[in-house]
Amino acid sequence: MSPQLDVPERFLEGYARVVADAAATGRRLTRDELDARRSLGEQAAEAGLGLRALVAAHLAEIRSHAIGPGIPLDNAVETAAQALDAFAEGYERAQRQTMRQEEAARREFIDDLLYGRSNLGQLSERAERYGLRLSYEHAVAVARGDIAYEEGDSLSREVERAVIARFGNRDILLTTKDGRMVCIAPGGQGDVLTYFAKQAFAAGGGQVAIGRPQSGPGGVVQSYEEALNALDLAARLGLDEPLLRSADLLVYPVLTRDRQAMADLVRNTLGPLQRARGGAQPLTDTLTVYFDAGCVAAEAARRLNLSVRALTYRLTRIHQLTGADPSDPVHRYTLQTAVIGARLLGWPERSA
């Protein structure tokens, strides 16, 4: 060990000798000499030694051995710096390689975690390295911004810093996947995901969806898929709320579970609207806004930039074509369900 800094002597091997030899004649270090220093730097990084301690040990070695009688000080300093620079280059190269390997392992783990790949027992063991105990409940939030999120970009780092500053690590994992930002947190810590949603929306706009807490190694996959489905539903239904909770949207998967039955409902209930002047879309949109406005004609008319009289005419026309009265509670349920189905199926642009 270096007596002052507990740095193994093998990482300083030949340093003082090479510097003294080169400095005595004023020559530059040879390629082989520089490669040897780079190799030692890589080995020191792989051994987990700190660069500051290594630099201090090299300087101490120079003071003790390399500046002898007849060796110009300037030559010794310049040659020592050249050798130390090569050593640091090798050290940094090894660190970059280690970081790339760790990042690749992290990305592989995240892919396995979110897609349910790999043996669940092995997945649980790997998860502990990242602070997750998969035997407990976890919930997942997924942020879709106005621009795609990339791993390590300024937006992702900003959100991660804010969440970690507020809650610490606290078994939280933040990452990006397919242009979205993902936050995984214990199921009982909903405040983490709500805060993440707030920060993600402030940083990148768009929407954030939160899946329900789920237990076990497969729970993360389930919660993640729920969050993705919520974002997909929002896009198809035109939901513009910044925060979506899958628990509040469970009715929609139920409605679409039997796609053929839903398609039949849309065709049978709304199909007659295609006979209207301008097609079915304007009247379907009218129903959508009318139901979203709580069936309050004045509010629906305001949202559509129509007079109440014009809106009433449209509702009457819908009644005439479909036989269902939007103002009747019994008919209203059928019409509203059909309108939701039309939005989910993309009707009338695409045939149901």
Task: Give an overview of the whole structure.
The chain has 14 helices and five strands. By secondary structure, it is of the alpha+beta class. It has a five-stranded mixed β-sheet, with helices on both faces. Helix 11 packs across helix 12. The chain is elongated, with a radius of gyration of 33 Å. The mean pLDDT is 87.
Which class do the helix and strand fractions yield? alpha+beta
Number of strands: 5
Helix residue percentage = 55-70%
Radius of gyration: 33 Å
Q: Shape from CA axes?
A: elongated
Strand order of the largest sheet: 2-3-1-4-5
The proportion of residues in beta strands is: 5-15%
Q: Main beta sheet: strand number and arrangement?
A: 5 strands, mixed
C-alpha end-to-end distance: 77 Å
